[in-house]
UniProtKB/TrEMBL annotation:
It comes from Magallana gigas. One of its GO terms (molecular function) is acyltransferase activity, transferring groups other than amino-acyl groups. This is N-acetyltransferase domain-containing protein. Residues 63-216 form the N-acetyltransferase domain. InterPro entries: Acyl_CoA_acyltransferase, GNAT_dom.
Length: 216
């Protein structure tokens, strides 16, 4: 059984819904979140912050996106996964992470993260496994409940895609929960083969969908 089969999957409602190969966050601690109409909405304004990260302004704060080294990221990534999904997940070896922070009244708060692995450009063709090192892979995507449905997850995904494609232009793959399929289709992913039944994890993710984004 590979790591994908051993890990629970959740989905992230950053726009319609989002998902990841190992973990996709659909609910926060089992409850679907409803957001009042006066929640801050993301604008299109982006600029560099003092540390080289990208800032996206909200009506009540700003969101900064930063890639951080794995050895320094693991504790905060574990805590974020627990806060969002109720379970603790670690960053797999050879994966990178981009974090999203909100700054409001001088206080910076971690609100989301995406974990991904860049394809091995030395490989000339894939092996038989869906998550072959030949492909780029999205592993985890987390957004805290109060910031879901505001585009944070979409921007995390966009930044991860840009990072991966800057190394080599290969297809991007993800294993999605059923509820997240529509989101990934909206982001340019298509289903590969038939859905399959997961051998472990929550009932909500009993069936998983292999999805791929073709890069031209």
């Amino acid at each position: 059984m590979n790591i994908a089969q051993k890990s629970a999957r959740y989905a992230d409602l950053s726009d319609v819904s989002a998902s990841a190969k190992f973990c996709v966050v659909v609910m926060e601690r089992g409850n679907i979140r409803a957001f009042p109409s006066d929640r801050p909405m993301i604008t299109d304004e982006n600029r560099e912050d003092g540390d080289g990260g990208k800032m996206t302004y909200l009506s009540k704060g700003k969101v900064t996106f930063r890639e951080e080294p794995r050895n320094r990221s693991r504790p905060k990534f574990r805590q974020l996964s627990r806060d969002v999904s109720g379970e603790v997940f670690d960053i797999p070896e050879e994966h990178q992470v981009i974090f999203a922070y909100e700054t409001l009244h001088g206080k910076s708060t971690l609100i989301g993260a995406i974990c991904y692995k860049t394809a091995d450009s030395r490989l000339t063709e894939p092996d038989s496994t869906f998550d072959s090192d030949y492909y780029h892979v999205i592993a985890f995507l987390f957004v805290k409940g109060d910031f879901q449905c505001q585009g944070v997850g979409r921007q995390l995904l966009d930044r991860a895609v840009l990072s991966m494609l800057s190394v080599t232009r290969r297809p991007i793959r993800v294993q999605s929960a059923e509820r997240a399929v529509a989101f990934f289709e909206k982001m340019g992913f298509v289903q590969v083969g038939q859905p399959f039944e997961s051998m472990c994890g929550p009932r909500l993710f009993k069936f998983l969908f292999n999805m791929e984004k073709i890069v031209k």
